[in-house]
Structures are given as C-alpha cells and as structure tokens.
C-alpha cells in the first residue's frame, strides 16, 4: 500500500523562513510536528483512530481552524483506508465459493460524528408529543368551564371571604357595582352593601344621599380604593380592611370631590390622597396622608408619617377613635403622628393658619361612633346630624 499524501494545517508563508528550534516550546507547533510525522506513516485503522483522539485531546490549545484541518486530514486517510479495504473484500468474495452473502462493509467514523448522532437521537426521544398535550389541555378547559358555569350563580349570595377566582373568570363576570348601587337606591332609603366579590379594586363614585357599608366579601378587592364625586353620603369601609375581621388593608386610597359626607375609610397600608373635599369628616388609618385643595374638613387619623396639606383651609385634626383603630403596627406605623402636620404652602416660622388640632370637647364621642355611626339601622340623615355634618350643609 502506497503512502497517502495528506494536507496538514501549518506551513510557513511565502518568503518566510522555516520555524526554528526555539519555537518548539509552543504546544501548537509541537503537535503539528508530531501529527505530520505520525500521519505520513499511518497504515491502518488503529492509527487513524489514535490521531482522531489526539486531535480531540488537543482542543484546548489548537484553534478551531486548525482542528478542522486536522479533521479533514484524518477523514482523507480514513476514506483511503475504507477504499482499500473494500477492494480487498471484493477480491476475496470473487474467489471464494463458500460465502453465499457478502457481509456489510465496515467504515470507520470519527468520534465527533458518533457523538453528534447520539445527541440527536437523545433529543428526539425526549421531544414531547404536542398532539397529546393539546388534547389534555382541551379536556381540562372543557371540564373547568362546565364546573364554573354551575357555581357562578351562587357567588353574590355568599358574604364570606374565599380565594380569588382565576383572572379570566373575573374578566368574564365583571359587574358594574356602582350601577347596582344607583339602581337599588331608587325608592329605597336603606343601607347598600355591595359585595365587590367579582372585583379586584373598590371604586365608589357619583352618588348622592346614600348610606353604603362594605361587607367582608369586599376584602378580596382591596388592591386599591377610590371614593369620588359623593354628596351627602355615609360610607363605611372598616370591615373589609380590618385585621380583626381577617380583612385586608387597602394598598392605596384616593378620595376626591366629596361634599357634606362622612367617610370611615378603614386601614390603608400605603398612601391616602385626599383632594377637593369640603364640609366633611374623614376617618382613616394610613401610613401616609396627602391633602390638597380641601376646606372645612375634620380628619380623625392614625398616620405613620407627618400628614401633609397643600392649598387647604379650615382643616382640623384629631386622633382616630379607638373603635376604628384596627390596623397592625407593621402595616401603618406604630407611632401616630396625626398632629405633626406639614403645610407645604406655609413657609413662615409661626404656625400655619390653615389647620389646627380639634379640641377634645368638639370631638365626636365614643358612644356616637359605636352606637350611631356603626349601627346599620340608623338612618343616613341621623348619622350626619349626630356627627355635626348637617350644620354645615343642607341635607
């Protein structure tokens, strides 16, 4: 068998001298010399396999281009060996009469090719059957829709706190609670108790002369709260935000454009923004309180920071009644800073004329809070008169 001439990946450029002996310390150069010497004398499969393993072991210091060149050299050697072996097999089979069927010819494959084939088979075996997954998902969706259709009719009748339904269910069964409150108010002077069981936030707006008390089921909708455009109303949101009744405090609360009303807002773990309120009383336990453009408002507060007023007048502050302090110290702050008011529009050294502490004799008595305001049987007009709102506005 003649010696195979094979190209190897290193040769000096034209016009440059051959490598000198002191460059032999370079591992790439040493490997090149070794490979050139070994491959020219290779005469069998064992040597070809050996060269393939040597190239694989030298990957750490041989560039990718040289690796490809070495691989091509080994492949050329392997092809020549396969060709020679095939010719010998054909010759022996022609002269032999004892062999009825020729055995398949063995061909040497580089180790990298075998590894790639094994990896491809493994990834194919792990590929999931998408048709079976889609079929199972379809069955699960059909069963879920059938069960939710049966249970949806009883959601509003139960006034208990339970886990939130999935978001898609909420979107499909969302209700306009403000419209229900307004429709029920026609010809009925009683208390409104909207459940907000299918909502994530509480928003009560655009009502006149209503008494609204939120039940415990509204605790699932306290992600945020909003009271706006209310006139001569009484609103009590204590129960769904009280920790004593397993309620959840509001993350934030916005109060805007209120006239001649009493708002008992419960607990707010974040900020409370009060804007455009006149001739009203607000009771709230909040971590922060910001008040803008308000006139003649009494605030009964538990505030974890300094209350801030801006563009306000006739503001009076008092500590929250014990009846309504139901929050936890870690939710709203342990220290009550209700009387450390900062007026952002008053920069003089003397006290701001826009606010003052509500005198104790002028504060609403505890029995009024407990028996009159908290009683659902008391009429709205009687509640407003008992807390003094009726003297500021015609109800």
UniProtKB/TrEMBL annotation:
Similarity comment: family membership: Belongs to the TBCC family.
Pfam family, one: TBCC
UniProt region (Disordered), positions on chain: 87-167
PANTHER family with a match to the protein in the record: TUBULIN FOLDING COFACTOR C (PTHR15139), TUBULIN-SPECIFIC CHAPERONE C (PTHR15139:SF0)
Name of protein: Tubulin binding cofactor C
UniProt-listed InterPro entries: C-CAP_CF_C-like, CAP/MinC_C, CARP_motif, TBCC, Tubulin-bd_cofactor_C_dom
Biased amino acid composition, Low complexity: 89-101, 142-153
Gene3D superfamilies, alphabetized: 2.160.20.70
Keywords: Chaperone
Domain C-CAP/cofactor C-like: 189-346
Residue stretches of biased makeup (Polar residues): 117-129
């Amino acid at each position: 068998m003649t010696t195979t001439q094979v190209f190897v990946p290193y040769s000096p450029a034209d016009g440059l001298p051959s490598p000198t002996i002191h460059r032999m310390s370079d591992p790439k150069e040493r490997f090149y010399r070794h490979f050139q010497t070994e491959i020219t004398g290779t005469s069998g499969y064992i040597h070809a396999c050996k060269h393939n393993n040597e190239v694989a072991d030298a990957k750490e210091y041989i560039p990718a281009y040289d690796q490809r060149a070495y691989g091509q050299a080994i492949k050329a050697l392997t092809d020549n060996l396969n060709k020679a072996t095939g010719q010998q097999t054909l010759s022996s089979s022609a002269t032999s009469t004892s062999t009825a069927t020729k055995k398949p010819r063995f061909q040497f494959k580089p180790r990298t090719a075998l590894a790639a084939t094994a990896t491809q088979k493994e990834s194919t075996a792990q590929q999931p059957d998408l048709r079976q997954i889609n079929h199972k998902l379809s069955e699960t969706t059909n069963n879920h829709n059938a069960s939710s259709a049966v249970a949806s009719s009883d959601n509003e009748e139960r006034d208990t706190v339970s886990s939130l339904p999935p978001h898609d269910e909420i979107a499909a069964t969302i209700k306009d609670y403000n419209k229900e409150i307004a429709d029920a108010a026609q010809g009925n002077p009683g208390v409104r108790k909207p459940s907000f069981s299918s909502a994530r936030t509480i928003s009560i707006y655009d009502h006149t002369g209503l008494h609204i008390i939120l039940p415990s089921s509204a605790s699932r909708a306290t992600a945020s709260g909003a009271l706006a455009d209310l006139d001569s109303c009484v609103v009590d949101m204590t129960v769904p935000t009280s920790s004593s009744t397993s309620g959840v405090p509001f993350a934030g609360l916005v109060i805007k454009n209120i006239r001649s009303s009493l708002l008992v807002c419960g607990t707010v773990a974040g900020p409370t923004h009060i804007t455009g309120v006149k001739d009203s009383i607000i009771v709230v336990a909040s971590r922060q309180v910001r008040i803008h453009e308000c006139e003649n408002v009494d605030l009964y507060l538990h505030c974890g920071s300094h209350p801030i007023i801006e563009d306000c007048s006739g503001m009076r502050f008092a500590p929250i009644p014990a009846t309504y302090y139901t929050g936890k110290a870690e939710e709203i702050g342990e220290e009550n800073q209700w009387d450390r008011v900062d007026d952002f529009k008053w920069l003089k050294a003397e006290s701001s004329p826009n606010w003052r502490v509500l005198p104790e004799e002028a504060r609403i008595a505890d029995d009024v809070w407990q028996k009159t305001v908290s009683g659902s049987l008391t009429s709205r007009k009687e509640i407003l008169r008992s807390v003094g709102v009726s003297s500021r506005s015609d109800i």
